[in-house]
Amino acid sequence: xxxxxxxxxxxxxxxxxxxxxxxxxxxxxxxxxxxxxxxxxxxxxxxxxxxxxxxxxxxxxxxxxxxxxxxxxxxxxxxxxxxxxxxxxxxxxxxxxxxxxxxxxxxxxxxxxxxxxxxxxxxxxxxxxxxxxxxxxxxxxxxxxxxxxxxxxxxxxxxxxxxxxxxxxxxxxxxxxxxxxxxxxxxxxxxxxxxxxxxxxxxxxxxxxxxxxxxxxxxxxxxxxxxxxxxxxxxxxxxxxxxxxxxxxxxxxxxxxxxxxxxxxxxxxxxxxxxxxxxxxxxxxxxxxxxxxxxxxxxxxxxxxxxxxxxxxxxxxxxxxxxxxxxxxxxxxxxxxxxxxxxxxxxxxxxxxxxxxxxxxxxxxxxxxxxxxxxxxxxxxxxxxxxxxxxxxxxxxxxxxxxxxxxxxxxxxxxxxxxxxxxxxxxxxxxxxxxxxxxxxxxxxxxxxxxxxxxxxxxxxxxxxxxxxxxxxxxxxxxxxxxxxxxxxxxxxxxxxxxxxxxxxxxxxxxxxxxxxxxxxxxxxxxxxxxxxxxxxxxxxxxxxxxxxxxxxxxxxxxxxxxxxxxxxxxxxxxxxxxxxxxxxxxxxxxxxxxxxxxxxxxxxxxxxxxxxxxxxxxxxxxxxxxxxxxxxxxxxxxxxxxxxxxxxxxxxxxxxxxxxxxxxxxxxxxxxxxxxxxxxxxxxxxxxxxxxxxxxxxxxxxxxxxxxxxxxxxxxxxxxxxxxxxxxxxxxxxxxxxxxxxxxxxxxxxxxxxxxxxxxxxxxxxxxxxxxxxxxxxxxxxxxxxxxxxxxxxxxxxxxxxxxxxxxxxxxxxxxxxxxxxxxxxxxxxxxxxxxxxxxxxxxxxxxxxxxxxxxxxxxxxxxxxxxxxxxxxxxxxxxxxxxxxxxx
Length: 890
What we know:
Elements: H1 2-15, H2 18-26, H3 33-52, H4 57-79, E1 85-90, H5 91-94, E2 104-110, H6 115-131, E3 136-141, H7 143-152, H8 154-161, E4 164-168, H9 170-179, H10 188-205, H11 224-238, H12 245-248, H13 254-278, H14 287-296, H15 307-337, E5 347-348, E6 353-356, E7 359-362, H16 367-370, H17 374-384, E8 390-391, H18 393-402, H19 408-412, H20 414-425, H21 430-439, H22 443-446, H23 448-453, H24 467-482, H25 491-498, H26 504-512, H27 523-537, H28 542-553, H29 557-564, H30 570-580, H31 583-600, H32 607-626, H33 634-651, H34 656-663, H35 668-673, H36 676-688, E9 695-701, E10 705-713, H37 718-728, E11 731-740, E12 745-754, H38 763-778, E13 803-808, E14 815-822, H39 827-837, E15 841-846, E16 849-850, E17 853-861, H40 871-887
């Protein structure tokens, strides 16, 4: 407490004789707009300067409230003072908690039947507040009207509970408080139920997690609103006016109160910084602000840990602690309010645990001290007894008190290791158990390296969750593949998962795959070492250990191969098959990859991504079954694809000589790069196409999503024009394949989606795309498209310098060029124009957007269809692209 008092004294000193300043403001000429503005502006500056100097934020919150009190009180006395009215602060202002741009809400009470008399003065008062620059939310009611409206709306009831009389007749304020008391409306049990439902609905709006990368400091789970919910219930039920009153009532220990208050002050500092930097009532920790706030709060970059990442990790860990305290207090309130006097006898589970009202609890306060392994056992018991819906608050408190017992001796205990392994082996409740363990601070203590990634964020737009939340989502996704009720989500992956034995091998790999993030070095290699130790400690067989370690080490292999390499190339498939080596590894790597991508970013997964992985899996499985000594050949795949496409065309009664004449104009690459369904659709359209104009068609291809193909006589700037039109139409390009016929026609195939990742569903939208693109291609004067769409708000705050890499592959007569640059609308159009200007031909483009980064791979040749080996040509192309892309960044 001594440090807190000292900090408050320093804060008051930073404000510079604040009490005298407030006294002068209160005594100023209340009707003077100039004087009021002067005091408000001077007070704001003092408060902001004190904040930037590191002053104690709760003093500043109170100071801002006191400043507004003084100005409003002075104005009331000059303009609206009446025996028939009372000025009341409500809501956060009623609590005396105002940040720089917090809502200032007031209630004006009037005596029944006197509104006509006091109305003109009240109007002058409210107009004055607007004139001096205060945006005040106000309501004008009699005490009876307050009771009537509060009974109908719990939000109004809550605001009135947090009220202070500022000026006017105190009898009116007393009448309002009496009319809205628990004896008249909103009995505490009903109020508590309504507040719980309100919190649950609010949490649902934020997907039940506070760990997204742009959290709301006020409304997200674990935010300030959760603390306020605790305070509201305490006031209604126990008449506790402040949080420390809960200590007196026995609901909080001194230690818990300190933790709760510390968390509140931290969130106030963050929210205060947001208001200061944005000069508006901003509660969202947007990417735009995170770096600035980290700097303002004194964080500095470290090796492998940016200042912003340190700040956000502290934020998430703070939220995690507040969430646990919220759980404990609301459950204690539930027991005191909803189950008061309920003497239900506990049901014994074993000598350490019993259940009551569907909640598990310890049989004595010393259970965890005598049996530390019970800190894991409690989660195992909840898994195996589905009727248990939670942990009783007192037991949660004891777990928090005793979790320090999870030490080296605990982790080395064979019994504890067996318990943890059994949790992973259960047929149900694995995800829920791990999430509860993380929520209550057990998982990070049992697995110290997991503890290091709790709350850790990566400052980019690719990873939308903290590392620990992402990890648990991976396991959740794996678990859903096991359960038949979720089979409709991913039928192929679900069927494969349900055919495997020992699913816990995948859960362990999922738990370990990112555990080394943020340590420096290759997190896959470091994670594999952690996985090997975990498996050795937990009695996993040597074969299973090798499999887990391989999966962790190679967990990015399949996604990188599918998204960055040409998987239609049989050499790529054969190379991948040799790297994988066995069907057992392939099955599990495929499942881990699917679940990892889906847990990284909700906008990342789509039918095209799924089709890439399924195609790579299917072709690799075939290669493995055939034998690595007898690899697949291109000729075999071409023959199979042609045969399947021909069967489709024959069934749809397309003339065989006609479609074979079309095929004769394409080289074998066309049949390697397209599925039989695509080839059949494109061939059918070409055969029936009338005229020499471009043929443009958008359709859904099974398991691929929306596919657009353009068939036209080859022309200058075609790729740049086509991709520019698509960008201007608000579309994202996921894949591009370019095929040229022997008679100078080109057939370009694009996999596309809307900017939000959704397929092109509406007929009118498809027509718009087809007509707009056809018109642009048919006009020879159109050589470029001006893309006016802007990059997203988020992406503009990341600096991604352009990097160009060249490589060659011996099995293909082309050069591979990788471009890493800032993503922005029209990027492919710019690159396409530069290709044409430099005589570069494009065969295939693999498009990958990694958050704010575009990591696109282009398979290119020179104008003679030969690889680009000339160093000067490569240098010129690299410099041209780099200069243009960095000049026109997002």
